[in-house]
């Protein structure tokens, strides 16, 4: 499986004094990220929002990618279209795909208020974008003549919500998706706030037969369904009922478990085994992550590498947060103690099913059994997570490998000592330890 990076954080260009220049910032890093094993970058919303310095989650003109003087400036917070296209070209040269952040439910920054004749309410729903594309009025939003009440989804921050059943809105969303894939070169979509509209809309946008370079192209699709495991599972069932099972969801339930692992004293590691996450029930539909731009004060504070080690050795499509990798310095290239080492493990060893070998309140041990075909050879691994803060911990477990030597490939914790090699007995048994409040990944050595 691949590894993606969320290539921004909240107000990144402002905080790094790179307003209007973020596409170029990313472009400077893509070659190195490709060499580190990253396969895709999730980019922020590319369109002009209600203010040119906005993050883009309040879209105004979908076709203004930073080239029209409106909403306080020409460029978006991130840059302009030419810079975005240059980033896409450079990313693809480095073997990295791009995922577009699609905000297709709520809008903001309207030019005029108007009365909706269906309910007599006055709202900011008159949009006159300078791109000349997708002008909107009250009938583009809920309630409209096409759907008098908002029967699908939740309202977001009081913004007007698009009525996708209006044929003009429906067509505009298809045109916008085609712009992303066919013109700008995006390779997939991340759909924002999918609670705000019907799953059917994502289904039809995902199932469209996009054409790029003369060939049909199927995008990767992942959704932000910020909810509990049951809601996410039901949503996945609905949307994949019409899309050949290609759509994933970010694993918020797992993320909150991992926050507890890192930030809650004496958290019981057996909670990681209860099935209450997307990756444990539906690994092929899980995009796993540790933190993102929305977490704010809920961000993980302590021992964050514990969480990254977990998502990079288990199933699912792991997403690494730019701020952690660069600003918090967790990439740690050239060492066995950071994200880069775990990405290497993920690509070369983390294949096959995950099997839990041991779980108690303070110790979790898992093996990936390995996978091999004509294109992939991932021999498997043993992963140890130690919740004790004052000592190394491990226990003897029965692996699938008899008489097999293992070497530690990635580890971190409150002790910088190097884990030792391990060798299983004739029945596959060996003890695998990890540092205090740390982890260790052991991989089989074939001589």
Layout of secondary structure:
Elements: E1 4-6, H1 12-15, H2 22-35, E2 40-42, E3 48-49, E4 59-61, H3 81-93, E5 97-102, E6 112-116, E7 121-126, H4 167-183, E8 188-191, H5 199-207, E9 210-212, E10 215-217, E11 220-223, H6 229-240, E12 247-250, H7 252-263, H8 278-281, E13 286-289, H9 304-313, E14 317-321, H10 322-327, H11 339-348, E15 354-360, E16 363-368, E17 371-372, E18 377-378, E19 381-386, E20 393-398, E21 405-412, E22 422-423, E23 429-434, E24 438-445
Parallel strand pairs: 1-2, 1-14, 2-5, 5-8, 8-11, 11-12, 12-13, 13-14
Antiparallel strand pairs: 3-4, 6-7, 9-10, 15-16, 16-19, 17-18, 19-24, 20-23, 21-22, 21-24
Features:
alpha/beta; elongated; TIM Barrel; 25% helix; 24 strands; 8-stranded parallel beta barrel; Immunoglobulin-like; 6-stranded antiparallel sheet; 447 residues
Task: Specify the helix fraction band.
Answer: 10-25%
pLDDT averaged residue by residue: 96
The low-pLDDT segments are none
CATH architecture of the domain at 4-108 and 137-250: Alpha-Beta Barrel
Gyration radius over CA? 23 Å
For this structure, the quaternary state is single chain
Number of helices: 11
> What's the CATH topology name of the domain at 4-108 and 137-250?
TIM Barrel
- The count of DSSP E runs of length 2 or more, i.e. the number of strands, is 24
CATH H-tier superfamily of the domain at 4-108 and 137-250: Glycosidases
**Termini Cα gap:** 26 Å
**What is the approximate shape?**
elongated
Structural class: alpha/beta
Strand portion: 15-25%
User: What is the name of the CATH class of the domain at 4-108 and 137-250?
Assistant: Alpha Beta
Strand order within the widest beta sheet: 1-2-5-8-11-12-13-14
The biggest sheet, with number of strands, parallel, antiparallel or mixed sense and barrel status, is: 8 strands, parallel, barrel
């Amino acid at each position: 499986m691949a590894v993606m990076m969320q290539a921004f954080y909240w107000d990144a260009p402002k905080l790094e004094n790179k307003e209007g220049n973020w596409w170029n910032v990313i472009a400077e890093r893509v070659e190195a990220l490709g060499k580190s094993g990253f396969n895709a970058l999730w980019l922020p919303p590319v369109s002009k929002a209600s203010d040119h310095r906005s993050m883009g989650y309040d879209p105004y003109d979908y076709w203004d990618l930073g080239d029209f003087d409106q909403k306080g400036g020409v460029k978006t917070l991130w840059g302009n279209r030419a810079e975005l296209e240059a980033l896409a070209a450079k990313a693809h040269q480095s073997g990295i795909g791009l995922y577009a952040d699609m905000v297709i439910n709520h809008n903001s920054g309207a030019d005029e208020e108007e009365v909706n004749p269906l309910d007599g309410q006055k709202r900011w729903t008159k949009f006159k974008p300078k791109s000349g594309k997708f002008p909107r009025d009250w009938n583009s939003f809920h309630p409209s003549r096409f759907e008098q009440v908002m029967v699908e989804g939740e309202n977001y921050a009081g913004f007007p919500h698009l009525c996708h059943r209006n044929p003009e809105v429906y067509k505009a969303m298809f045109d916008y998706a085609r712009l992303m894939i066919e013109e700008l070169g995006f390779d997939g979509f991340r759909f924002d706030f999918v609670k705000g509209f019907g799953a059917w809309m994502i289904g039809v946008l995902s199932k469209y037969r996009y054409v790029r370079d003369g060939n049909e192209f199927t995008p990767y699709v992942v959704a932000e369904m910020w909810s509990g495991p049951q809601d996410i599972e039901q949503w996945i069932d609905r949307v994949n009922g019409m899309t050949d099972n290609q759509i994933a969801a970010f694993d918020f339930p797992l993320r909150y478990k991992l926050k507890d692992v890192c930030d809650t004293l004496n958290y019981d590691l057996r909670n990681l085994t209860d099935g209450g996450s997307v990756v444990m029930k539906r690994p092929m539909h899980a995009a796993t992550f540790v933190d993102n731009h929305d977490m704010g004060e809920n961000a993980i504070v302590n021992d964050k590498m514990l969480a990254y080690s977990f998502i990079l050795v288990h199933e699912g499509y792991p997403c690494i947060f730019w701020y952690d990798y660069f600003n918090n310095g967790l990439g740690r290239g050239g060492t066995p103690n950071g994200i880069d080492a775990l990405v290497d493990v993920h690509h070369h060893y983390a294949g096959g099913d995950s099997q839990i070998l041991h779980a108690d309140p303070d110790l979790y041990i898992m093996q990936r059994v390995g996978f091999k075909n004509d294109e992939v050879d991932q021999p498997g691994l043993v992963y140890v997570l130690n919740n004790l803060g004052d000592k190394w911990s491990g226990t003897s477990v029965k692996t699938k490998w008899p008489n097999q030597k293992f070497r530690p490939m990635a580890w971190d914790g409150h002790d910088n000592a190097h884990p030792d090699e391990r060798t299983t007995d004739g029945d596959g048994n060996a003890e695998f330890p990890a540092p205090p409040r740390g982890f260790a990944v052991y991989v089989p050595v074939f001589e």
